[in-house]
Each structure stands twice: as C-alpha cells, then as structure tokens.
Write a structure and sequence with these properties.
Strand order of the largest sheet: 13-12-11-14-16-15
CATH class of the largest domain: Alpha Beta
Oligomer: single chain
Largest sheet: 6 strands, mixed
Length: about 675
C-alpha cells in the first residue's frame, strides 16, 4: 500500500496527499475545508460527519472505495449507541482514517459556513387559474334497493351540485373513497384535476390545498409552497443540490454517469430525496401535513430536468445534444418520481427548449414575458451554465454558454459560495490602492467603526461571486490590472498589497492570522474565461437577431440578483446598455415555476411560446471563438461601451505583452 493517499473534498474541490492513517478531519483542516467540529475530534459531537463517494471520478483521477477508509471502530459505534445510527455512507471525520485515495463529500449540515440560499419568490401579479379545484359535496348513502357504488354516487353528487359530469378517476381514489365517505358522514371534499379527473377525497370540509414550485438548479434547489386557492406563498426553502458530490458542473455529472453504470439512478435518487426533504420542510414551516400538497411544478436545465424525471441525460453530453423530449411533462403522479407529498398529487414539468436550454429558461421567459412587448430584452440567467434569451414579441432567440462555476466562487483561490463570512462587496482607492469591503453577515464596510465587532462571530472566510466580480472590476479601475487582465507587478514597489505569486503577481485584499484573501492572476483568468464565454454567447444572439444594442437587460438567478450591474458591465459580462435599464429579475425561473403552478392558462401559453424560440448552438457556431477572444479583454477588445463610458471613467488600454486568447487565456469548448 502507498505511503500516502489522495483525498478530494466536495463540494469545495480541495485536494491533497496525506500519510496513510491520517484522520479525514485532520486532512480537511490542513486543506482549509469548511467542516464543523465542536468536541475537538473526540467523537462526541458528531458535527464532522462526511459521506464517502464511491466509484470512478475521472475528473479527479481517483477511484474511491469504501475500503480506502478505515473500518468503523469503537468511536463511531459509541457515538451511534448514544445518538442513533449514522446515515448510509456517513462516517465521523474524526474517526475515519485514510487507507487509500478517496473522494469525500462534506454535507451542508457539517459545514460551518452553510450556504445562504438567496433565491426567494418575487412579488408578481398572477392571474389565478389553478388546475386543481376543490368541491364539497353531500353524497347519498348506499341503498340495498339502488345498487350503485360509492364512487358512482360521489360522481352523481358532483354532477347534481356542481354540474360537473364525465369525471374520470383512478384506483388510488377508489382506495380512498369509502373510508372518506364514512368518516365524513357522507360529506366529503373532492379535488378535481383539470376539470377531468378526481384525484383526492377528504372527509368533511377541506378548505385548503397546496402546491410546490421547484427550481432545480445544478448548485441550489429552491422551492416555494403556495396556497392554490389564494396564490399566496406560505413557505419557501432551499438547499444545496446533493448531486454536487458527483461533479460541480453539469458535464462532470454526465461524465460520472458515463464512467459509472447506474450513476444516473444514483443522481436521480439523490435529487428526488432532496425534493421530498424540501417538501417536508415547507409543510413543517406552514404547519400542514404533506398530504395537503396535491401538485408540484418543476423546472431545471435539461440535465437536471432529465434526472428528476428518471431520464438518462448522456445524449446531452455531446453533439448534437439531443433531448429525450421537448414537450411538457404533464399529469405525472408524484409517486412516479418518489415525491413524498399526497400520493395522488400531480406533477408538471415545463418544456425544455433545446439541448442545453431547458425548462428553467422556459420558466424565465414565462416570468419575464419578452414575447409580449416591442422592447428588445436580453435575459441572462447566470449560473454554471448561463442561459441567454434575446427578443421581443416578433422573435425570440435562446442560447446557453459554458461559464463554469467561477461566478459562484469555485475555481477562485479564496472563493466560496455566498455564506456568512464571504466578502461580497469591494472598493479600492485608486490613489492608495487600499481596499475596503463588506462581508455577508455584517452590514458595515471594513473601514467603518464596529466592523470588527459585527464579524467577530462569522469572521472573514473567503470571497463569493459578487465579491470577485467587484474586486476585479475595481482593480481594473484602479490600474492594478490592465484591459488584458494582467496584474501590474511594478506596483509592488508602491504598495504592499501587490506581491509576487510564482511567475505572476497577486493583490492582497485581506489578511489576518487565520485567513488570506488574494486575487491571483489565475483568479482573474478564471473570471475572464467565464465572462468571455457569457459575452460571446450574447454577441452571437445579437448577431443572429441583427442588432448592435439592446433596450433592456434582466439578470436572473441567485448570482444575478446580487451583483452590482455597473461592475458587471465594467468587467464586460453584459453588453453596453443604459445602467438604469439593467435590473435584477431575481429567481425568475422559480417565479415562472410558480406562475405555471397557479395558472393552467400560463402552462398552455409557455408550451406554445417555446415552440417558436430559435435556438443558437454556441458549441457549433464558428464565430463563437472569435467573439470569446475579444470578450476576454476588460470590458471588451473592440466594443466601445459608450453608455458605460458616459458614467464611468474607464482606463485606456495598455499593452502587457500577453496575447489574449492564447496559453492560459484560451477557452476550452465544453459544456458546463
């Protein structure tokens, strides 16, 4: 056996080699992995629980096996005797030691800096037209002289009292109806789906039923519980997508499926379990039983949507990126996707548009309705795989662009997701090159009195997506980096903030005894690659539409909701536009899912609209690379950005001798 072993932690991606026999918790601490422990590794608190990920992980070059960790011993057996069994695959990080190469997942509940799920329901006016309606009826009791079934007499009562005829039903209603009638003394409430089918029967008067609208993102799942009678959002919840342990980006997950037979079933089971857990959380928050939830609408990118519905997404792993279906998934039983709500609840999945433009993009279109106006609107849903929509009532175009996880803090040396302790706002004095910043969990800037007190509990732990965007844009405005993104090493003589970093230089944003946040040349390149891919996709759509400018830009998604639009434009994430016309759409995909939940008319509308959307495939467009190379510059190599320049003094271009688009700056064409 080798003298040392490689351990890779997800979702952070941090990795290192340690001597065989090293406890997982010790390795995690040495690598700066965010993992909790109160008892100091004595096996008492159980907060350092981790999950072993078994299988081949080509991305990491690791084949992870259960026997690559030490067997369970007295520490874990003792903890289970006191606290109950550890979950399947769970180990105590302080007790499990390395015997070979492993991939280990740190679940959200074991992280000190748990992610703040910022997706929230937006306030929109929705014309209520629920597909499920409730009807209270009094049913005649059985009579020996009139030999009709309980279900037949129930249908007769609905026709007599509500003039609803010809209703179908299924065996699950037949299993409920007799008990409900007798418990309710022959008075029951019936749930009817789409004016065609009885799906539930409750004894007595049942006044409330609920539905959940779910946005299944590759990183975060957000869900909203709605009262189907009023449209009110009564509870919201979010959690990390557990599939992240199989790969941070979409193609890593597809690769996992290709390399591991049955991997699609593993991911499907993981996401379905998360959906059921969210449903239980929502019901608990609202003070209802899960049996009161009779409907769900689900949106996600094509790979997420496929996995939720048990469709193997491997065909989306390469050209021509064929979807199994581009139609809505309608009328599915909740139990068919193992969703723990009312057993006869119905599930609706919005239609996907094309291979890498999914039901989440359809939901964004439904929420933002660009198809109803003359104004040329650009909608950008910023995530690991950015989805872009451009158009108006005359024409709609859509594309996806592989931005990767840099905007979410991944691939950044001090990066983390948006959690307490993360730097989220940055300003740099152009004269002194000294920074000031804000941290999630504190309402004060770092140079304001009381800042140290407000962060005493959370500390400063890293920098999230909005923080890295502002940091790089401010470095550009201050002259620390040029338009090619190269750090000016000569400034090291002027300020201790600029320091050598191997063959390049870095900028020290913050440093104390426990944390050092540096903006390195590699960090800048990672963001340039991401923003270059995004902007190139946007320019392709503008080219196909035949326009050089847009009237309005809407930034959707959790990341889009929290970036400063000025800095997004300075960096060159989005094209030139009047800043007051660049606004956040919040979680527009979640809003679209909620609209579809509450309005059957909206479902039919979006099903028709998406059939007319023109898809532009960036992976096969010959001009993508040309646009991408030009978009690597800050804000852009050739686009003049006159509206931005009218409000921001942009530095003049300065040569650095580093050719954009070559070497480190070259973008590999892949799906993320």
């Amino acid at each position: 056996m080798a003298d040392d072993a490689l351990i890779v932690f997800t979702p952070s991606g941090r990795r290192g080699r340690f001597p065989v026999g090293t406890p997982v918790l010790e390795a995690a601490r040495a690598l700066g992995v965010d993992i909790d422990s109160v008892c100091g590794g004595r096996g008492l608190c159980g907060r350092c629980q981790v999950e072993l990920c078994e299988g081949g992980f080509a991305k990491h070059g690791v084949h992870s096996r259960a026997d690559h960790l030490s067997p369970r011993g007295d520490t874990e057996f003792g903890w289970e005797l006191r606290r109950g069994p550890l979950g399947t695959g769970r180990r105590l990080g302080c007790a499990a030691t390395l015997l070979g190469d492993v991939v280990v997942d740190v679940p959200p509940e074991s992280q000190v800096h748990r992610q703040i799920v910022r997706k929230r329901p937006e306030v929109v006016d929705i014309a209520l037209d629920p597909i499920i309606r409730l009807y209270f009826v009094e049913v005649q009791q059985p009579d020996m002289h009139v030999p009709t079934s309980d279900l037949r007499r129930l249908k007769d009562a609905l026709q007599y009292e509500w003039h609803i005829a010809g209703l179908a039903s299924d065996v699950r209603v037949m299993q409920q109806v007799q008990e409900a009638l007798r418990q309710g003394s022959w008075q029951v409430t019936v749930a009817v789906y789409d004016d065609e089918r009885i799906i539930a029967v409750w004894p007595g008067l049942h006044e409330k039923v609920y539905g959940i609208a779910v946005d299944v993102g590759s990183t975060t799942i957000a869900a909203h519980l709605c009262d189907l009678q009023t449209g009110e959002v009564v509870a919201s919840a979010g959690r990390m997508n557990p599939q992240i342990r199989f790969g941070e980006d979409l193609m890593s997950r597809v690769s996992y499926i290709m390399m591991n037979p049955g991997g699609d079933a593993e991911m499907t089971a993981a996401v379905r379990e998360a959906l059921s857990t969210l449903a239980q959380e929502l019901a608990g928050e609202a003070g209802i039983g899960v049996g009161a939830i009779v409907e769900a609408t689900i949106v996600g990118n094509p790979i997420m949507q496929s996995l939720v519905f048990g469709i193997n997404p491997v065909e989306l792993g390469g050209a021509p990126f064929a979807l199994a279906t581009d139609e809505a998934i309608d009328g599915l039983w909740a139990t068919e996707i193992d969703l723990a709500i009312h057993p006869n609840a119905r599930v609706y999945g919005l239609p996907c548009i094309a291979g890498h433009v999914g039901a989440d993009a359809a939901a964004v279109i439904l929420s933002e309705t660009p198809y109803l106006g003359e104004e040329l609107m650009l909608i950008v849903d910023v995530g690991t795989n950015a989805e872009i929509v451009l158009g108006n009532r005359h024409r709609l175009l859509a594309a996806s662009s592989p931005t990767g996880p840099a905007f979410e803090g991944a691939q950044i040396s001090s990066g983390q997701r948006a959690a307490k302790g993360a730097v989220e706002r940055v300003r740099i004095d152009p004269a002194t090159l000294e920074p000031r910043f804000k941290v999630i969990g504190s309402g004060r800037w770092s140079d304001q009195p009381g800042f140290d007190r407000t962060i005493a509990r959370v500390g400063v732990s890293g920098i999230c997506g909005s923080g890295i965007i502002e940091a790089i844009a401010e470095l550009f405005l201050a002259g620390v980096i040029n338009h090619e993104g190269v750090v000016n090493g000569s400034l090291a003589a002027r300020t201790p903030r600029v320091v050598p970093d191997g063959r390049t230089f870095a900028y020290i944003l913050y440093e104390d005894a426990s944390c050092s946040i540096r903006i390195t040349q590699n960090d800048i390149r990672a963001v340039q690659l991401a923003k270059g891919a995004l902007y190139a996709g946007i320019r392709l759509l503008m080219e196909h539409f035949g326009t050089e400018q847009v009237d309005r830009i809407r930034l959707a998604g959790a990341f889009g909701a929290h970036i400063d639009v000025k800095y997004a434009m300075i960096l060159g994430l989005i094209p030139d536009c009047r800043l007051e016309h660049v606004t956040s759409a919040g979680n527009a995909a979640g809003t679209g899912a909620r609209i579809a939940l509450l309005s059957r008319k909206a479902r039919r509308e979006i099903e028709e609209v998406v059939r007319g959307v023109q898809k532009v495939e960036t992976a096969t467009e010959p001009r993508f690379q040309e646009h991408f190379v030009d978009a690597m510059a800050i804000p852009h190599k050739s686009d003049p950005f006159p509206r931005l320049r009218a409000v921001v003094a942009l530095p003049a271009p300065t040569a650095s001798g580093h050719a954009l688009g070559r070497g480190q700056g070259r973008r590999q064409r892949r799906r993320a």
